Give the backbone structure.
Amino acid sequence: MNNTQIKKPLVNKDVIICGGGPVGLAMAFLLGKEGLSVSLFERRPSTTTLPKGQYLHASTGELFRQWGVWDLLKDAGWETEKSNGQGFYVTVADGPVAEIKATFEPHAAYVKKWEKYSPAFPRKVPASEYESALRHQASQWPKVSLNFNSRVIDVNQDSEQVTVTVQNTENAHCQEYKASYLVACDGAHSFIRSRLGTGQDHGPTFGNQILVEFRADLDDTLGKDGFFHSFVLPPKYAGWFGSKHPTTGLWRYSFRHDEDVLPPESVMLERIRGALGMWNLPIEIVDLFRFDYSTGLLRRWREGNVLFAGDAAHWHSPWGGFGMNSGIQDANNLAWKLGLVIKGAASHQLLDTYQIERESKARITVKSATYNSLHYQAIAEAVRVGEGQYFSQGTISPEARVFLEQRTEPHGVNSVLHTGYQLGTVYRKGAIIASDRQAPTPELGNYVETIVPGVRAPHAWLKAADGTRTSTIDLWGTGFVLIGYRCEEKWREATAKAARKFGITMRFVNVDEKADYAPEDDKFEKLYGETAGVPVLIRPDGFIAAQLYVEPETDAQTRLEQVMAELMHPSAAVVTNKLETEELM
Amino acid sequence: MEHKLSSLTSAIVQPETLISQPQQNRLFIDVRLGKPEDEFKSYREQHIFSAVHAQIRDVFASPPSPVSGNLPLPTLEALEKQLQHWQVDNDTEIIVYGPSLALAARGWWVLRWAGLNNVKVLDGGLKAWVDQGGPVAQGVYEPSKRHTPSVLTLRPDCMPSISVDDMVVLTGDSVLIDARDEASYYSGRIPRAANLPASEQWTPAGKLRTVEEIRHLYRSVGVDEKTDIVVYCGGGVLSALEVLTLQALGIPARLYVGSWSEWNKKPERMAMSDVEGEQA
């Protein structure tokens, strides 16, 4: 290497973030909001331009609302009608032979349906759009510095500090940086993990995926059918089309190609036209990408003062759109803990609850993504068998049609939406005070609303004193919230005192006709009414930490402080991340 | 476990044993012999957590000369330099594994030849390791300074071997085993060699066959505890595995490192050889 004279560090930061994808940027935003000094390093010159990672889950949308990102994306992305589920074709020209839709209603009705569960709704937005919105929001904090063209080439840590060496990709100059903590958000091929990680578990790889971006007039065919993914069944053209990109206007076609040499343009054009069944269609190939996906789960997400988030901790195929969404949730789980530890309000063991809570979700995530990949492959492969004559006539046999319907049916609407995956996250242990009531076992499809400790605090519509419509979700994200239905004012005083005592942000929200907020409908009462008067402690990440069942007049103060002490200083029993025999059986 | 060869020797180890007995001073070596770029890529995609990558040509052999076999032994200097880079000392427990047990055995043989005593071949390699829930990793492992290595002393010839000159005068009192596959054996072999392909000693899953099965294989070519045994193959890889399994059965064997790829370099030796068509 030339010019690799390493300059000594001048400044010490609170946190260094490696990687400027959605997870790193979300991390930078959240830590900046906590007032921490942050340096983020990303080797690319800017946020992503790759045409992948487009599925925003409702749970991510909720956080984006809190962060001001949802508003920035208001007009971005695909219309619901143009990104709706999955279709199966023999040739596109002949129309779909089977379909799975996320909704059969128009956009407004779709949003209305989701309003019951969330102030946000699942939608498709290009990664380029939400990454630049996240970058915009993160850069508003004066103590956050976002450095692109910056490749991390070395990392070391002692008991006090983490040191990274960063090389400027334009002039090859190197500079050392130090920080109290490092968060590795550097993706499936994490450099930090390769240096400091201590073991992984691997799953299948999905290699040699080619993605072609092309320009063509398909508005009246693929565009009208409106699927987000359109699978082409005949083996000769096996692959899928992605819907038209909302800003570039390009279409996508993806297929597997097991040779090192890319097919020449003439072959590519023949293949796309064949899959479409439109032999004379003018097509301009604009770009071509090659992707390989591997699957894995990191065993330890914390090595000293280095933590791993997103794809650096769990990586998998893109099917289901879990990567960005689960990574954003990782950041949301970790940021407030890191903030409290760095400010000295919590002991460092709180950081160990991060893996304890998020790993169970990651385990579900790697399984689901793997399942989705294999399951679509399996369906398509199975349908293909014995269809030669039908394929040549542009159709499939009646048996294949039945088979397709039956195979896709159990994975119907909810396999596309994964409502349970999106909203039904449960942390069984970690920074929560478990009650005697058990949270329901999470399911991919179905979501059960509850306010048992460990779950994402559910959504209900409220009216502020000035009449503004607010979701409970919009109340989270800044410190702790103690919320309840018809609670004693005593809790307000207890909240203020506990906040002072622990040096944290915490506020009390009473919901009643004449209180801080009034319920807009009966949803809030349904959730909180059964335990009216019992406030619920919501963590800064919007998860329920505890329900406070005590006599407010005498015990509010004591109980709240007890709970806070337990959360901020988790005992060894909570943070031991050993496999328990009980859990294995 | 008694049916496993690893129950007879410390030179073969089961993954579960390693996993249940963590060791600070342990080094895994992922031994490869194919096309270097492809092998390195495959190593980068997945290896046992904390395994270093070793291409046999670079680490467990030196460059061939016009008269040598394909994989002559490395120089002690080169081997020592590599082992120091990997933070190996005399006490390091070295675990070798590879896409086939024979590649691992070559690594084992060379390290033992150089005087290291704590060297083990991982039965079943990476697949068996993963099947037992062992941790893996992507990327390239850089042996860090987790411990300060103490002394590393290498000395040559700590394993019995035989030179080509001694091979020429080998008498019929010794049992000579050719460890290559049958096709190679029949297309040309050293006189009096019996064929016992190394590949018959492992299962399709890459685990060593049972003690009884392997003992039976050796008996079939007339091996018993009292015979003097010499093993060769193409270049001292497949044959290293047979030295390993023979040793596990308590039978010492000499390795002809040069093997067929050295033997066939001289016309006068070839004139002595059994070549295609003739049966021994």
Summary: Chain B has two domains: 5-137, 164-270. The first strand of chain B starts at residue 12 and ends at 13. The interface with chain A takes residues 45-46, 49-50, 130, 133, 135-142 of chain B (CB under 8 Å). The CA atoms of residues 106 and 237 of chain B lie 5 Å apart.
